[in-house]
Design a protein that fits this description.
Number of strands: 16
Order of helices and strands: HEEHHEEEEHEEEEEEEEEHE
Distance between the termini: 29 Å
Low-confidence stretches: none
Mean pLDDT: 84
Shape: elongated
Strand content: 35-45%
Helix content: 10-25%
Length: 261
């Protein structure tokens, strides 16, 4: 079987097992009607009392064999209509697909109302929000913070490390410089990422803070000491150069994620 035949086979499987409500491959737990048409249970719970295809009643038992088959059979990504061509086992890929939808939270006070795919969000961020777009080399990166410029309250720096995209969120609030890093995966991660943020004066490290990279969906990061750095601006002003800028150094490390058994 060549690639085209395999792709057509998978598309046929997806069409045959498509839920008539959400129009995606039916997802376990599933319900079937007396004529064998399958529907996602979560879709049936939206006040669906009879099969949308044949108008017959639903069975009280689940189609366990069909559920087990769909768990092991590969399928097209549910974001195929947006351009994704990935084929993977049921739902394993979609959590990290670059065509998944996300809402932008990079505007002042999280007021940006942009929504779209992750890959398009990167373009949107470069156009509207990112102060700098950088590349980590040799596991280190330098970020300039202008403390003498009082016109900004928040900045976002996009940087890339080994094809992974991260966003450094920087805020000034009540005399504190607050920073945290989000990992925006474009495929299933194989590592967790850790960073050391340090501030120097005359090549001497004055402040050094370890933090973890948060995931795209993590909440309440700013107040979590595992993920965020808070340092008084007054302390950093003692480290500024003649231009009123303090240089922060980022060092990156990674830890392998154990494979699921």
């Amino acid at each position: 079987m060549n690639d085209t035949e395999l792709l057509n086979l998978i598309k046929s499987i997806d069409d045959i097992t498509k839920c008539p409500i959400c129009l995606l491959r039916a997802q376990p737990p599933m319900t079937a009607c007396v004529n064998g048409h399958a529907i996602c249970t979560k879709c049936r719970d939206i006040l669906v009392t009879e099969c949308p295809l044949c108008m017959q009643e639903f069975l009280t038992t689940r189609p366990h064999v069909l559920e087990q088959l769909l768990e092991v059979l590969p399928g097209m990504c549910k974001f195929a209509s947006r351009g994704c061509t990935a084929i993977s086992r049921f739902s394993r890929h979609e959590q990290f697909c670059k065509y998944r939808e996300m809402r932008c939270t990079l505007g002042q006070n999280n007021l940006c109302d942009w929504k779209g795919t992750v890959k398009d969000w990167l373009i949107h961020g470069d156009d509207k929000h990112f102060f700098l777009n950088l590349q980590i080399k040799d596991q280190t990166l330098e970020i300039p913070h202008s403390l003498s410029d009082l016109s900004w309250n928040s900045k976002n720096f996009r940087f890339t490390f080994e094809s992974n995209v991260f966003v450094l969120h920087t805020k000034r609030c009540s005399g504190e410089l607050i920073q945290y890093i989000r990992h925006i995966p474009l495929q299933k991660p194989t590592y967790t990422y850790h960073f050391i943020l340090s501030f120097r004066k005359n090549e001497e490290i004055i402040y050094k803070f370890p933090i973890r990279a948060a995931s795209q969906d993590d909440r309440e990061i700013q107040d979590n000491s595992l993920y965020s750095l808070w340092v008084p601006v007054a302390n950093l002003q003692q480290l500024t150069n003649e231009f009123g800028t303090v240089i922060m150094n980022i060092q990156c490390a990674k830890t392998s994620i154990p494979s699921a058994k």
